[in-house]
Amino acid sequence: MGTVAENIFNKPKKRRVARVLLADTGLASRLTLKSILSAAGYAVSGAATGAEAIGKLDEHEYQLVLADLRSESDEAGPQLLAYARQKDFQPATALLASDLRETGVRDAALERSSSGNGAVHMSNENIFYLLGRVAELIGRRADRRIRQSLLKAT
């Protein structure tokens, strides 16, 4: 048994990682994205339906919610993100798209990125971009929350 100082410094530290909720009806894409994000150090929960995602939002706090544009209906992804934004923990939100031109999504819907929302374009060739975009969204959320708490303190 070592000294108190040795015990404190040798204790494994519990890392806080960002939690991501990934709502995607496609099993293959959901598992692929979950694997990529998990390998990057994020704690990822997957949901196959909007109802399942809403249940997870009601049970756990997430820093980022990603919803597939090709989900159950054209409205399902945006509705899920609107629900997520109403939660007290205010996660960053984004729509997932494999090809934005095919989705029919208007540019205005994607321009919400200044408030921590927007779209994440994904393909087999852009894992670096995907991870950068996820980190950016989580970082913007953290910045927004810090600013809010500073304003409340003054």
In short:
By secondary structure, the chain is of the alpha/beta class.
- Calculate Rg over CA atoms: 17 Å
**Reported CATH architecture:** 3-Layer(aba) Sandwich
Q: In CATH terms, what is the fold-level topology?
A: Rossmann fold
Strand line-up across the major sheet:
2-1-3-4-5
What is the count of distinct domains?
1
Q: Per the principal axes of the C-alpha atoms, what is the gross shape?
A: globular
The H-and-E topology, N to C, reads as HEHEHEHEHHEH
Determine the number of helices (DSSP H or I, runs of at least 4 residues). Answer: 7
Unreliable segments of 5+ consecutive residues: 100-116
What does this structure look like?
The protein has helices at residues 4-10, 27-39, 50-59, 76-85, 100-103, 107-110, 127-153; strands at 19-23, 43-47, 64-68, 92-97, 117-121. The protein has one domain: Rossmann fold (3-Layer(aba) Sandwich). The protein starts with a helix and ends with a helix. The protein has a five-stranded parallel sheet with strand order 2-1-3-4-5, with helices on both faces. α3 (50-59) runs parallel beside α4 (76-85). It has seven helices and five strands, in the order αβαβαβαβααβα. It has 154 residues and is α/β, with parallel strands linked by helices.
